[in-house]
Task: inverse folding
């Protein structure tokens, strides 16, 4: 849809030319929200995806990691697909020894602050962090949508997030601890930074 509606969009371009919040917002005006969105517009739901990305440090929300579902002919409207492909999250590419070093030095917040929205077109003044991109998306939303995503973040405790991480099979102890600290750090940044 971006390629069809946005002349500046370049599919799979290294510069991510045209993959911007402005263009995504334009495209999603023509799209319904997924079921269960409680009356939020499609872009407001997409903004929630960016909040989730910032929370879990997912730097991979490129133009092929969000989608619109096309209905059968004469059976409805285009609908934003649910969020998917979160595999590049929670420091997935770090070794346990690197995680342990970051934990021991108290450098998880430094690691978290480096997460960039590099799958979006770079602004003239640099690449936004994931948290900055989420906040920018939320600024474009209604007060109701901003309140919903903020309440969702505030309603999940650090202990609950850590308990969920403990249930993930196959994670090493350093990976579990790192993920829990990263989630706590990013949740705090999302709730405090503006």
Result:
């Amino acid at each position: 849809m971006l390629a069809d509606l946005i002349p500046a969009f370049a599919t799979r371009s290294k510069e991510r030319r045209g993959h911007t919040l402005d263009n995504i917002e334009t495209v999603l005006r023509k799209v319904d929200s997924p079921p269960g969105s409680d009356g939020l517009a499609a872009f407001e739901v997409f903004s929630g995806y960016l909040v989730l990305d910032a929370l879990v440090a997912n730097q991979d929300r490129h133009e092929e990691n969000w989608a619109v579902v096309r209905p059968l002919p004469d059976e409805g409207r285009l609908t934003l697909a649910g969020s998917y492909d979160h595999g590049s999250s929670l420091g997935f590419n770090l070794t346990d020894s690197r995680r342990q070093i970051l934990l021991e030095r108290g450098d998880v917040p430094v690691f978290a602050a480096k997460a960039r929205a590099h799958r979006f077109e770079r602004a003239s003044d640099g690449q936004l962090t994931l948290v900055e991109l989420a906040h920018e998306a939320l600024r474009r939303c209604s007060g109701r949508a901003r309140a919903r995503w903020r309440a969702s973040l505030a309603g999940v405790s650090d202990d609950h997030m850590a308990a969920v991480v403990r249930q993930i099979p196959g994670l090493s102890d350093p990976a579990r601890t790192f993920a829990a600290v990263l989630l706590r750090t990013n949740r705090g940044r999302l709730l405090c930074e503006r």
